[in-house]
Design brief:
about 400 residues; Rossmann fold; Four Helix Bundle (Hemerythrin (Met), subunit A); 14 strands
């Protein structure tokens, strides 16, 4: 599976700062100090609908992580999956009378278009669950052989008790885990499971549903969590720098994925930092495909909204905050974009070297985009009021906003 084209990231004078970021597992900020190549895995879409603002906010956050790393002169090894076979996708295909593969391909293509328009840096490896199945099957077999998994009526489940570190990502109690498991694709009430929280690794073939050869597992398809584990281990290995996604993935997805990997390898941790973006709401409720309360990036683009304004609307909120999308949020972003473009369109301006460092410092401080935007606002206001004589300043501001914030002025 191919990703989308990369926009050029301008080089800035000097060097960026190491990123201090909130780690869900420890509950506090840690300083990320990758080697020459920083490694990040971000969980991708289940492609049964177009990219909504909640998706865009999540991928914007991890695009910023990459940009901060690139500014420190590191390379970035970014991996993202596509869950191109799963119950929600199959259910939507049946509901709408579509072939599930065509639905997945169409929505994945639209996602690529949205990411390109928003200038999100593409992953080096963009892997679908279906193409990962040959690598998933041996992992499930290994977990069975190690006693970390068991069969139940032809399905294979992971035993959460096989990982002594289970629970160290989310720090939830058992009751909270059971409730979230039931809400987010688990089956805690299924009879015969060793532990209600045990997640499925391999689902045996069901009538009318797609299935693949699972060698000793029989025909079937993979569970959600083992998909990401197989892809991450194959392309990044254990102990990569950041596992990213929305806050709704903390449990069960990231908790279970960590335990799968740790049981497979005997190593800990799966990722050095677990980083999660907040949820975007509409009309008082979290945007979700199940509720249908969505604002789509593609619909805004069709209505003529500049993708740079959409991105500025996202940047106006701290990535970890839960916030609400409104018409005013977009209007404010459109107005900010116009002010910034007017400020950099002048042939000369106020010196901007200090601004570059302000933006760097704000982003290094747990991706504080509101502070970064405020810094650019101050420069633009002063530029509008008085201007200056530095011929290189407008260009430097444009390159800074593009390189670090992903907004083309």
């Amino acid at each position: 599976m191919h990703a989308w084209p990369a926009s050029e990231v301008p080089a800035l004078p000097g060097k960026g700062r190491d990123l201090r970021i909130h780690d869900t597992a420890t509950g506090g900020r840690i300083t990320l100090d990758p080697g020459p190549v920083a490694r990040i895995y971000v969980c991708g879409i289940t492609p049964y609908d177009a990219t909504h603002m909640g998706h865009a906010a999540t991928y914007n956050a991890f695009d910023l992580v990459q940009r901060v790393w690139l500014d420190t002169k590191r390379q970035v090894h970014y991996v993202q999956n596509v869950t191109d076979v799963d119950d929600p996708l199959l259910e939507r295909a049946v509901r709408d009378g579509h072939d599930w593969t065509e639905l997945a391909e169409r929505e994945t293509a639209l996602f690529r278009e949205d990411m390109t328009a928003l200038r999100m840096l593409p992953p080096e490896h963009y892997i679908g669950a279906v193409e990962a199945i040959p690598g998933i099957v041996p992992l499930v077999e290994r977990l069975l052989d190690a006693g970390a998994a068991y069969e139940l009526d032809g399905d294979v489940y992971f035993s959460v008790e096989s990982d002594p570190h289970f629970g160290e990502v989310s720090h939830l109690d058992a009751e909270a885990m059971r409730l979230l498991s039931a809400e987010r694709g688990g089956d805690p009430k299924r009879p015969g499971k060793k532990n209600p929280l045990d997640p499925m690794l391999w689902m045996s073939a069901r009538d009318g549903e797609p299935s693949w050869d699972g060698a000793t597992l029989g025909r079937g398809r993979p569970g959600w969590h083992i998909e990401c584990v197989a892809i991450a281990l194959d392309h990044l290995g254990m102990g990569f720098d950041v596992q990213g996604g929305g806050s709704d993935l903390v449990f069960p997805h990231h908790e279970m994925g960590a335990s799968h990997a740790q049981a497979l390898t005997g190593e800990h941790p799966f990722a050095r930092a677990y980083v999660h973006a907040g949820m975007v709401a509409l009309d008082g409720e979290k945007m979700s495909k199940s509720k249908g309360n969505l604002v789509f990036v593609s619909a805004l683009r069709r209505d003529g909204v500049d993708p740079a304004a959409i991105r500025l609307a996202l940047l106006g909120h701290h990535y970890r905050a839960d916030w609400e999308w409104t018409d005013q949020v977009l209007a404010d972003a459109v107005e900010r974009l116009a002010r910034w473009r007017a400020a950099v369109s002048r042939p000369d301006g106020l010196p901007a070297d200090a601004l570059v460092e302000e933006v760097r410092e704000a982003l290094a401080d747990d991706l504080d985009t509101p502070a970064a935007l405020a810094a650019v606002d101050r420069w633009a206001a002063a530029q509008s009021a008085a201007g200056g004589t530095d011929e290189g300043a407008p260009g430097l501001v444009s390159r800074t906003v593009d390189a670090l914030l992903g907004v083309a002025l």
